[in-house]
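Supplementary Text 2. Reproducibility record for the structural model of the 248-residue chain.

All settings were left at their defaults, and a single model was retained for analysis rather than an ensemble. We include the record here because the model underlies the residue-level annotations in Supplementary Table 4.
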Amino acid sequence: MSQTLLRAAQGTVFAGLVSFGLAVQADTHQLYQASGMQTHQQHFQQALSKASSRYAAQLPAALADSLMRKSSERFAPDRMEARAMASLSINLSDQQLNDALQFYRSTLGQQIIAAETRATSPAEVSRMQDGVPAQNTSAARTALLSRLGKQLPALDMGEEVSLALASLATQSANDMLGGLLTIPDGLAGQGRGTLRAQMEPNLPQTLAYVYRDLSDQQLSDYADWSESDTGRAFFQAASAAARDALNP
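Retained model, structure tokens:
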């Protein structure tokens, strides 16, 4: 083969690989959007900004500046999104990604995402500061919510958000102290089990409130999907994506 033909062949292969990579990236980004992950991240950024502004006014100037700087570095939206999508692409096969995308584009999937993203919106979070309004559910609906709660990564994500923020504060405090009085980096991690134990009892009522507008049949269909191979794979991948996005 002549050098000209060889270079042409190599160029064709390279172009094909690039096209394949862009297609995978496009599919992953579509799932990132369709599953509500992009909206949840936007809500996280809004909550982070509000919390940072509130706490900055209560902290010494040096610590406040360190916290704000590290927050901007660690939780930069574009970097968080890139880490989350890279994690999704690694942890989902092409078939799983396409099946999950098809589900979340369905009428039921869109209704679910509307309910879940509403729950993480700043307005709704503010409304629930004093607790989730009690929901009276039938035994059958309670059983459906229990099935769903065993599959959803709600507790995992709650842990990751809380611990990431705690770690950020610890690191900023250590920077300010200059190592003279070092706060152990593992201190937040030691509370992981305690944190989960505190959140878990509230999960049934939280799910009942979040999915209050879904009918029993819709909730049953969602529980069925959550227990399918694709549903399990997606929730595991979503949990890993959240962890990777929060922990560079």
